[in-house]
């Protein structure tokens, strides 16, 4: 039987890896940085596994040169990282702290010297604590503070960084932060979470305008959405209605105004018991709907829902952490289901078809806009073997399956231009502390030693050749 042809990607396809500032940098009190909401949250007893914090994380602030050298050695073509807002603008207002900006200038220079394309995310959940003290994302002013911050960073780095992402997963920032409370700042107010979602949308629009006012016209501005690949448990009307509700709350609430200039009517009707949406002011939707250069998608697992039984309704996060409060406002009548089959350490089902579903959905939702997979990956219980190597065949299989789904979407007509593996390094996994390892590179947290796992070597080979290696080759 002849060997199957290798799965190859277009020659210009971007092969990258991603991280975020609070998860890897450490150095939380150096060079003028002040606390973010995640510093406060992680230092609050009972909020994170083992009371762990990002105070040191994987010490990327001091080890970035070695980390860039490792990326180059692996053969990565791009690196997506986030800027720590309180490192650049400690109070969320006023002039920048140049020492904070200088770190990112050095990082960008190091990447460019290594032939690695930098991609900047402006907001990956680390709101300056002073802005939260003033009300946080439920307050309209926070969106204007974000635009000021975006202009500062755009002026500093826009001459050398071409790819920009305003917000990462605004769904998590709004609903895990302000509805279920499992993420910083840990508030549990459904109405506030919906106001936060709108003001995050407004921040994206205002931030896009601010970036474009100070950067070269050829730079790309996008947003990273983690819209759920929602599937109804059955085709019964009640289950279809449940799927519509979760689809609106995970996706429509963001891409509705961002791409189409309006919130879905079904969303407004479903959330009417929680809010009257009077926080949406005249002109907001026009400010939010700025022309984009790309859409970035984060995907890990599909979401399966049904209508909940009237006598057995339970609050559920849909796999987003345990809480007595739901991250889904006005959706207590929706039940979440765990599909059968393989799961990651997060308890998430492994299903590449959900990634294909999501890509094709946005291919239709935003025709003509390039797409990037800005996060995709899996947590497994990785440990070094007796010989010191870290073999993670489950992650290799996960990446292989999901990259094949991306290639299938390209064949089906979607303009997918790049893929960022989550994550480059094992790191601080938010409320899970250090117990969940998403990295392609193993980190010994005590010594800070980096050990590329077999998945990193496999993915690096794919990045260098543009074709997926045999899964078995990861063991070599």
UniProtKB/TrEMBL annotation:
Catalytic activity, reaction form: Hydrolysis of terminal, non-reducing beta-D-glucosyl residues with release of beta-D-glucose
Annotated segments matching region Disordered: 311-346
Pfam families (UniProt xref): Glyco_hydro_1
Keywords: Carbohydrate metabolism, Cellulose degradation, Glycosidase, Hydrolase, Polysaccharide degradation
Annotated catalytic residues: 375 (nucleophile)
Enzyme Commission number(s) from the entry: 3.2.1.21
PANTHER family noted in UniProt: GLYCOSYL HYDROLASE, LP05116P
Family: Belongs to the glycosyl hydrolase 1 family.
Protein's name according to its UniProt entry: Beta-glucosidase
Lineage, top ranks: Bacteria, Bacillati, Actinomycetota, Actinomycetes, Kitasatosporales
